[in-house]
Write a structure and sequence with these properties.
Mean pLDDT: 92
Number of strands: 6
Strand content: under 5%
Strand order of the largest sheet: 1-2
Order of helices and strands: HHHHHEEHHHHHEHHHHEEHHHHHEHHHH
Structural class: mainly alpha
Length: 604
């Protein structure tokens, strides 16, 4: 999940020379000429910028930090100039729909806008680069010994650790990684807000919310409504998991009522709970009989084999193989000799076919699924590479995240049989379906409130309703309000726990991941209908179905050229994002959870 997936998001922080506007009032022809110049120059510039940022992410040093900061600083300054110029054309009569759409993309697509004040762009980029670098070099402790970010993530899911060890890892990571960032983060917010105001937005958060083919306030309402529709399912899952953790650890560690202790959920941010599935698996039906990581290890599969398996899925849908450069230039393993950003990401370096992934792959189930996800970005990037530059992006940012996720939903037992990982005799029978669904829900459903609250917090930070003195208090309050979780202990006044999540210092808008959780089930349900699937939705795999692949590719090729409802309709037949497909998928589980939770208090 996943930085640098969008050429556009990078492009909009880059520089080009703009044509001089006519002295008279601008015309539609002036706007067309402006767009043509912008697209040509940005296309060229992004190649160099992508290469520099790739080197920075895969060779973290003071020098590469400085290189990335410089190239992005120049770009941020110029991108604001473009956005300001685009705003001047907004109300020109006679604009074509195509030019108007591209002008809107230029005006609203910047993640961190710098004001035109001299030096502001350089300062903004220095802070942003430094924050991401700090995260990449972050360390926590386990048993008093330093442990890297990728290793501590793995250990948070290791059920051999004790509650005290989980608390140590959680606390040390948040203290050592998050807290030192707070002052710089607050300074960065102030600079970005000044830039957003110059572009005509109330603040940076309002600017982010404006990129969804609807007014910002309507977008906030739509996402909140989707959450409210899914909340009963999450509440049922929360109640069930809390009771199981209470049985495991006792009242002193996890009480029967109230919030769940964040560090006990198998993930540093309690955003996905799948790692603790063995603790909550229903007796008898909960043992699926296999673990993907164990299957991979038993067959001696390497990280490269895992990537090949991911490519094979997309090939089975009729998509062309990945280019040779993908295999030569991607980062699959954590180098032993240098610091890198291990956080998984997918890259399109040349706006054509130099697509790559950057990971520190471990042979386990999580990374097997993540590979399928990241490749979804790459295949999307390649599908729309014939579009004009400003359309080299997903229909909305949730689409880009959802493509790989909905493919990963097809990693069913039957799929594992089809690719030779699982023996056919080991496919779980129908009486294991609740276990299969619960395992999926521990990641998919558990993520929903976290996917929403990260940007809810940032929107408050940007609009000033959350002041620096209250950063951590409000973060903790939102996590309790939406997720029903609390830290393992009291947090100090100077804590900045939000900074311990990559996407905060990395300045990656996060609502896209919430949308992706919803959209992936809409895509998946549509694909299964197209494949003629008749059984339970969660058992469907469209692996090998070229009809689904052709229809999917037709949507992907659209890129950002049309409003997202058009793209959604092209593949699913619907023009509205909805949680209905997700609810249908988990309906048998919801019924079962309600039975298990009878007599138990819900909520916190």
């Amino acid at each position: 999940m996943k930085a640098m997936i969008s050429t556009l998001s990078l492009a909009l922080s880059l520089a080009v020379a703009t044509p001089a506007l006519a002295q008279s009032a601008p015309t539609a022809a002036d706007a067309d000429a402006f767009i043509a110049s912008v697209e040509k120059d940005l296309f060229d510039y992004t190649v160099e910028a992508s290469q520099v940022n790739w080197v920075n992410s895969t060779y973290l040093t003071e020098d590469t930090d400085a290189m990335a900061s410089r190239i992005n600083a120049v770009g941020t300054e110029k991108s604001v100039k473009y956005a300001l110029e685009a705003a001047k054309f907004k109300d020109v009569a006679g604009l074509s729909a195509d030019t108007k759409r591209k002008l809107d993309i230029l005006r609203t697509g910047i993640v961190l806008p710098a004001p035109t004040t001299p030096g502001a762009a350089a300062e903004l980029n220095t802070i942003a680069t430094d924050l991401q670098s700090q995260y990449g070099k972050g360390r926590g402790t386990l048993n008093g010994k330093e442990i890297s970010g990728s290793d501590i993530e793995a250990e948070m899911g290791n059920l051999q650790n004790t509650p005290a060890q989980f608390a140590e890892m959680w606390t040390s990571w948040h203290d050592k990684v998050g807290a030192p960032m707070k002052d710089d983060y607050a300074k960065m917010v102030g600079i970005a807000n000044a830039g957003a105001k110059e572009l005509g937005f109330a603040d940076t958060g309002a600017m982010w919310r404006s990129g969804y083919d609807m007014p910002p306030e309507e977008f906030a309402k739509v996402t909140e409504q989707i959450w409210n529709d899914m909340k009963p399912l999450y509440m049922a899952l929360h109640t069930y998991v809390r009771s199981k953790l209470n049985e495991k650890y006792g009242d002193a560690v996890q009480p029967k009522t109230g919030p769940i202790r964040a560090d006990l959920l198998g993930n540093m941010w309690a955003q996905e709970w799948g790692n603790i599935y063995p603790l909550v698996a229903p007796a008898g039906t909960g043992d699926l009989g296999y673990d993907i990581g164990d299957l991979l290890t038993a067959q001696g599969k390497t990280p490269l084999d895992m990537v090949k398996a991911g490519e094979n899925f997309y090939s089975s849908l009729g998509m062309a193989p990945l280019p040779e450069t993908f295999w030569k230039r991607s980062q699959f393993l954590k180098p032993a000799d240098r610091e890198v950003v291990c956080h998984a990401s997918a890259w399109d370096v040349d706006n054509k076919d130099d697509i790559r992934i950057k990971m520190c792959i471990k042979v386990n189930a999580d990374d097997f699924i993540t590979i399928h996800h990241e490749l979804g970005h790459n295949y999307y990037q390649r599908a729309y590479n014939k579009q004009p530059f400003l359309y080299l992006n997903g229909a909305n940012d949730g689409f880009h995240e959802a493509i790989g996720d909905f493919v990963a939903l097809s990693i069913t037992p039957q799929y594992l049989v089809d690719i030779g990982l699982l023996d056919k005799s080991k496919v779980p029978s129908a009486d294991k379906d609740i276990g299969l669904l619960l395992r999926q829900a521990m990641d998919k459903v558990a993520f929903l409130p976290f996917g929403l609250l990260v940007d809810r917090w940032r929107w408050g930070v940007f609009d000033g309703s959350i002041q620096p003195a209250d950063y951590n208090k409000k973060w903790t309050e939102l996590r309790t309000q939406y997720q029903g979780i609390v830290p393992p202990g009291e947090r100090p006044a100077n804590a900045f726990d939000a900074g311990a999540k990559f996407h905060i210092p990395g300045n990656t808008p996060y609502t896209r991941y919430f949308l992706a959780r919803v959209l992936q089930f809409q895509f998946y349900q549509a694909a299964c209908k197209q494949a003629g699937w008749k059984g339970p939705l969660h058992r469907c795999s469209f692996y090998g179905n070229k009809e689904v692949g052709a229809k999917l590719n037709a949507m992907l090729e659209m890129g950002a050229s049309k409003p997202w409802p058009d793209a959604l309709q092209a593949f699913t037949g619907s023009r509205e994002m909805s949680g209905k497909a997700m609810a249908d998928y988990f309906a048998p589980l919801k019924k079962w959870l309600d039975q298990q939770n009878k007599g138990k208090p819900q909520g916190w």
